[in-house]
Amino acid sequence: MSAAQPTMTSTTALDVASIRRDFPILEQRINGKPLVYLDNAASSQRPRAVIDAIRSYYETDHANVHRGVHTLSQRATDAYEGARDIVRNFINAGDTREIIFVRGTTEAINLVAQSYARPRLGPGDEILISALEHHANIVPWQLVCEHTGAALKVIPIDRHGEIQYEAFERLIGPRTKLLALAHVSNALGTIVPVDKFIARARELGVPVLLDGAQAVPHGPVDVRALDCDFYCFSAHKMCGPTGIGVLYGRRELLEEMPPWQGGGDMILTVSFEKTTYNQLPWKFEAGTPHISGAVGLAAAIRYLQSIGMERIARYERELLAYATERLQEVPGLKIIGTAAQKAAVISFTLEGIHPHDIGTILDTEGVAIRTGHHCAMPVMDFFQVPATARASLAFYNTFEEIDRLIAALERARSLLS
Amino acid sequence: MDLKDLYRDVIVDHNRNPRNFGKLEAADSHAEGHNPLCGDRLTLYVNFDGDRIREAKFEGSGCAISVASASLLTEAVKGKSREEVRRLFDQIHALLTQHDADVDLAGLGKLAALSGVREFPARVKCASLCWHTLNAALSNATQPVSTE
Ligand SMILES: Cc1ncc(COP(=O)(O)O)c(C=O)c1O
């Protein structure tokens, strides 16, 4: 076993010690050891600013939105619609009408599948995705294909976990009615060079949806610079609450799409003969929305912006480089996903030790990682592994925590291999 | 929680060197078990001598707990009647899930090593997969077992 190496420190001006004090949950011990939380791709943790914003909303401002003339209803509406504008600004959308609040990435993709794709597609049409997608960017399209007779086409990946561009060029064509790609892979960490895929799709007039669940938390995202048509993400992976997320959609497309759920808020007038639908974005927000969720998401965005998305990205790159280097020193460890551009997600296997055992052993050392298929079973099949262990990092993680991960892996090896 | 309670020497040994590992050609019965959450997969084969299990083997891949449990199972059920296997299943089930289980640990022999698993609720399914698979294999073979 290698002796503990001197811990590297960051050259980025990010005061991680002070940032960590913003996250109450990180202060605890798990199984007697200080918690090392490395399961951020599944869900990140919340800073006090987010928890306080939600509490304060409930303690002083809560009522239903869009419905009352009384003061609280006005405040709640202002908070909810104010959050929409904060989201718009955060991803640089041009218009708040293009920001639809949904439950999360999964619901955002399903909305596009049901409201955009399903009415338009038929036999002979194709939806194009890649082999590194999360199940949330596979199954909704399979449902559409079942209903419409359209076909799902899959762009293969290579052994590094990169989407094969030449294969993409062969697969995209006149039949392609939608291209749906992850911006960043949750199972492999690949940052997909979406610009070139989008540019080609544009030339052919194919609309593009990006699953940004793993991209938004880790660096700046500008939907207009990307020039995509739909962009989906979840608040809970970016320090916000669970149960809320965002669908960004280009306005011309959203205007043409029918509502996908009916109820209150999404209508202007209702009679038994005829109902007229509300305008964007409310057309897609039937029922009382997750108001406190939007408030929490807005607080999360303000918090992330106070640190700076560029600085977060830079710091996480340093962490990733350090973690990758240290992990490669562990005998028998193999990193799954070695794309040229990666986000701070590291999937790996350890020879002779099943990922499930790694997860249990690390937990007794206070180190939380994820093990399993990461909702990407086709990716596991491609790499011919039943599962992987995955450490996914956030800006509040430290170089010392990487050392703790390595030490815990050594423990696993001494116990089981 | 003590890891040594989960990964006892018997478990570690049976994970490293699983007993009765491999396919049983011309098995009287077999069944597949799959735990989609962790990707564990195993196939269990049994041969009978009348009502008694003459031989049991398994193959597949899984975590240390599921491999060791299957390996221990194949040793433990050899020579047992269906009724004895059913009683053993109940005892293992109680051992894995109940804290105050009334189980005769000494009578279980090496299988008693599985008692540490109940302190790790996320791992109970790993240990029980092969036992459920055995149940399926037994009910597949309800007909009198042929001697071929
Ligand atoms: C790439 C990717 N897409 C989609 C999702 C689904 O997100 P949610 O469960 O928040 O809807 C996830 C989260 O696991 C993800 O990592």
Fill in the keyword field for this structure:
heterodimer; A: 417 residues; alpha/beta; Aspartate Aminotransferase, domain 1; Aspartate Aminotransferase, domain 2; 2 domains; seven-stranded mixed β-sheet; 17 strands; 39% helix; globular; disordered N terminus; B: 148 residues; alpha+beta; Sufe protein. Chain: A; 18% strand; binds pyridoxal-5'-phosphate
Question: How would you sum up this structure, described in words?
Answer:
With 417 residues, chain A is α/β, with parallel strands linked by helices. Chain A folds into 2 domains: 16-46 and 309-416, Aspartate Aminotransferase, domain 1; 50-306, Aspartate Aminotransferase, domain 2 (3-Layer(aba) Sandwich). Helices cover 39% and strands 16% of the residues of chain A. In chain A, strand 8 (208-211), helix 8 (223-226) and strand 9 (230-234) form a beta-alpha-beta unit. Chain A is globular. Residues 1-6 of chain A have low confidence and may be disordered. With 148 residues, chain B is α+β, with helices and mostly antiparallel strands. In chain B, helix 2 (9-16) packs across helix 3 (64-76), helix 3 crosses helix 6 and helix 4 (82-97) runs antiparallel to helix 6. Chain A binds chain B through residues 31, 353-357, 360-361, 364, 371-373, 380, 386-387, 415-416, and chain B through 1, 3, 6-7, 12, 15, 37-41, 61-65, 67, 120, 122-123, 126. Bound molecules: pyridoxal-5'-phosphate. Pyridoxal-5'-phosphate (PLP) binds next to helix 4 of chain A. The site of pyridoxal-5'-phosphate has 14 residues of chain A, from helix 4.
